[in-house]
Design goal:
The protein contains 8 helices and 19 strands. The chain is α+β, with helices and mostly antiparallel strands. The strands form 4 sheets. Strands 14, 15, 16, 17, 18 and 19 form a 6-stranded antiparallel β-sheet that branches. A 5-stranded mixed β-sheet has the order 2-1-8-4-5, covered by helices on one side. The structure holds one DNA strand.
DNA sequence: GTTGAGCGTT
């Protein structure tokens, strides 16, 4: 049984109760579920009146000597501070307004303890967001749990978030996946996972979170033990993950290499991932795939991912943006290394604290907030949302090596583009060379 | 009374 810790994003806000693990620790991921971008907790000690940090080790927050009896306040990296949910909900509503609402699917929860009840299942997953359904499958005769269940969330972002990480229910690691009841390959949902190579042992979970948190909200960090020289980081936004791919970054003085994390056992660079492969499995189901494949450039992936996973397709008509190239052939998005003016991923709002990102954080900024320029956004147009009203221009002035490509014409989201059939299915109706518009997925 | 990869009586 777990205890509930009162956590707030700001000292003046009403706390949210977040369940601890059975060992009494509180998972940072549980906190992040409610407070995206949080990197730790602090509390005001009654005696010293000072703020004290909560010990964090490998994603587990350890209670102070006094226990979890205080109200704990989230720590955020520098300017990343944000109120718990305004950014989230703002961007969400915008996203949903412009698109048919991103629909949640039932999710299967594998690996539940035999003893976990529906109530407990609900209690746990409710901490991520509104839960519409929770059931534990049982043997009709004995009434005993079969060790798995199903849940469904109300908000798609919640689903994304939950899919993006491992879970601990009643002391057991559980996996949440999109069900494949129809036998075949099943549905692998891209969850923004990247492979971090050339890692050194002195780089911790926290180091990775701190460093890469600049680029977007992180939902999971996994460093295999014993140490193997690499790690996986999962971003809430697949775009952020893809944008970082194939880059070198200096973390704690070490140059680590970021590349795509692909499911083990299939080399599917060119297969279009028709039936998205294997599950959303644990970290060990992933291995590195060399970045060299011809279709593996970030833009390709971005195209597919953006369309597929965010369901912007039907409306991705290009043009119209401030710098829009008209028609359906806006230039491909260019990711600015340093937030230059051509950055299509800079949001319209010019400030470093742009509340229009999907994940709340600098989700689409290719660079840390501090270096964001005032470049107009072609990503969403008005309001700088992920497809706000008005412009839908994805393209714009920044092209990729001069090629232009359309982003329109994907087949959609729910049952075709993303979830169940595959998501390399862009039809490529864009103009120009269409270089990034193939249905080959990645 | 056990178990630990998987996929749902409606």
């Amino acid at each position: 049984m777990s205890y509930f810790v009162q956590v707030t994003g700001d000292e003046n806000e009403e706390p949210i109760e977040i369940p601890t693990e059975s060992d009494g620790t509180l998972l940072l991921s549980s906190v992040e579920a409610q407070f995206p971008g949080a990197t730790g907790l602090k509390y005001r000690h009654p005696a010293s009146r000072g703020l004290r940090g909560v010990r964090l080790h490998e994603g587990c927050l350890h209670p102070p000597d006094e226990g979890w009896k205080f109200v704990f306040v989230c720590s955020f990296p520098k300017e990343n501070k944000r109120k718990s949910d305004d950014t989230l909900e703002n961007s969400m509503s915008k996203t949903q307004r412009m698109e048919k609402k991103l629909q949640c699917s039932d999710l299967v929860v594998l690996g539940l303890p035999w003893t976990t009840t529906e109530k407990e299942l609900r209690a746990y997953f409710s901490t991520f967001g509104e839960l519409l359904m929770a059931q534990v499958k049982k043997d009709p005769k004995t009434g005993k749990s079969k060790g798995f269940g199903f849940i469904k969330f109300a908000d798609y972002e919640t689903q994304l978030r939950v899919l993006g990480q491992r879970h601990m229910v009643d002391g057991r690691h559980c996996d949440v996946r999109i069900p494949n009841s129809h036998g075949e390959a099943g549905t692998r949902q891209f969850n923004g996972k990247v492979f971090i190579g050339r890692l050194t042992e002195d780089i911790s979970h926290e180091d990775l979170r701190t460093y890469f948190g600049k680029y977007g909200e992180i939902t999971d960090v996994y460093i295999p033990k014993p140490f193997r020289g690499f790690a996986f980081i999962t971003f809430l936004s697949p775009e952020v993950a893809q944008a970082l791919c194939d880059e070198d970054h200096i973390v704690k003085g070490t140059s680590v290499h970021i590349s795509n994390a692909t499911p083990k056992g299939s080399n599917q660079q060119n297969q279009g991932r028709g039936g998205p492969g294997g599950g959303q499995g644990g970290p060990d189901n992933w291995n590195q795939q060399g970045p060299g494949g011809q279709n593996m450039n970030p833009l390709n992936m971005l195209a597919a991912l953006t369309q597929a996973s965010w369901g912007l397709l039907g409306n991705m008509q290009g043009g119209g943006g401030p710098n829009g190239g008209g028609g359906q052939s806006g230039g491909g998005p260019r990711f600015n290394q340093q937030g230059g003016n051509t950055g299509n991923f800079n949001q319209a709002g010019s400030g470093p604290r742009d509340n229009s990102n999907f994940g709340g954080g600098p989700a689409h900024a290719r660079s840390p907030p501090s270096s964001q320029s005032t470049g107009a956004s072609n990503y969403g147009g008005t309001g700088g949302s992920y497809g706000g009203s008005g412009s839908t221009g994805y393209g714009g002035s920044g092209s990729y090596e001069g090629s232009s490509s359309g982003y329109a014409g994907n087949t959609g989201y729910g049952n075709t583009g993303y979830g169940n059939t595959g998501w390399g299915s862009s039809s490529g109706s864009g103009g120009g060379a269409g270089a990034y518009n193939h249905g080959s997925g990645w």
